[in-house]
From TrEMBL:
The lineage of its organism: Bacteria, Pseudomonadati, Pseudomonadota, Gammaproteobacteria, Alkalimonas. Gene3D superfamilies: 1.10.1660.10. It comes from Alkalimonas amylolytica. It comes from the Bacteria. This is Helix-turn-helix domain-containing protein.
């Protein structure tokens, strides 16, 4: 299982880090764990699935 940080997810999705944190708060991206600073970590597979879904619904 590969985990991604907020910054890595933001880069992968092409959005700002603050947007990734908001998606996590709204449970649109499911967090798996937290890093040392308390920021969420995400499974790479979940992020990839979210990107596909978002593109099907009209974009990020």
């Amino acid at each position: 299982m590969s985990l991604m940080s907020v910054d890595e997810v933001a880069e992968f999705l092409g959005v700002q880090s603050i947007r990734v944190e908001r998606l996590a708060r709204e449970n649109l991206l499911v967090t798996t764990d937290k890093d040392e600073q308390g920021k969420p970590l995400f499974k790479k597979e979940d992020v990839e699935r979210y990107k596909v879904l978002a593109e099907r619904l009209g974009g990020l």
